[in-house]
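Re: the request from the purification team.
They wanted to know what the chain is likely to look like in 3D before they choose a buffer screen. I agreed to run a prediction and write the result into the notebook, where they can find it.
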Amino acid sequence: MTFNLLFDLDDTLLDTNLDAFLLAYFKKLAGSMTSFVPPEKFISELLRSTQIMYASKSANATLEEVFNRNFYPALGVPRDEMSAALDHFYDEVFPTLESLTRPRPQSIELVEWAFSQGWNVSIATDPLFPRKAILHRLRWAGLAPEKFPFSLISDFHSFHFAKASVSYFPEFLAGIGWVDEPVLMVGDSMERDVIPSQKAGLPVYLLNSGKQEEQGNVLHGNFSDLRSLLEMSDHSNFKVSYGSPSALLAFLLATPAVFHGMARSSSTESWSVRPQPGEWSRLEILCHLRDVDAEVNAVRLDAILQEENTYITGQSTDQWVDERGYIREDPAGALRKFVEIREKMVKRLASLEPADWERRARHTILGPTTLRELVEIIVDHDRLHIQQAMGV
């Protein structure tokens, strides 16, 4: 059993004073782009597009894609025209902001110790920055990625959700394999770390808050306290629990985002490749999830919401892979349809009252069940096939 430790970056591993840092960052960035756009307009559109990106809940667009389609048209300058200047900024100018930050020796000691335990250590920073900016800040923290083999570092190039959407956390878990292993999220912010982690069902540790009124029943303390907790605790207690409606909705929305991410990072041809005879390709997995949602899951949810204690029969769907010729389908079209169906399901479930999640049904295999339990089964089914697809 491997323990997964997820660290926030700013004001957790790195002393940043994020508000002051962002102000200086935006000023320097705008100043570096004056040959394209007046600084006032640049900063105004940067803030507006960042807010849109932060609020995005789109499973078929990364945060970078959401930002780009709002930011550059508003500036009236194509992204390609600014790419060289942006690269120069992040390579040469952004590093001058290091003086506004300070490394935390205790964080370096804790991360080094965590790696020495053989744990998977990841950087779960809000993915609102380009990867270059995140890697610079890790180096400023004394945690250079060239030295520390982090399992995953979230950034806006590859992630579809910011922490506020809650789906960030299941997307992150998928990125580290979404295995049934203990997890602990460590961060400094109630708003950006604790509350969304709890809504997603992740155990969380609040670091150095100093605000007792905010801490409540949340595990909290300094780096020394955290190490003591990790040394003395049974790590098997740090399990993800996605049985609440907020967690189930977050995990349901993350699944099509994970497949969208896989599609962006691999060739179309590779999706039809079966790893071994008799095993499914990524395309077949995707089509399977799409059709099960459309013809099984959606039908069952409708039945439960329309009739109390309705009767639900089991259904075999694996044979559809060959019967329907999934391997010959267009991956892009299959993905678009899956996103459409799943987002519609999430929207409907999100509109339910708390009591609706406990509506009862009778299942030929499960026996007495509830809508909540059936949605948990959908998430478990997603998890199985995400692991399968990531192994392809």
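For the purification team: The chain has three domains: 4-15+101-237, 18-99, 245-390.
Please add any questions underneath this entry.
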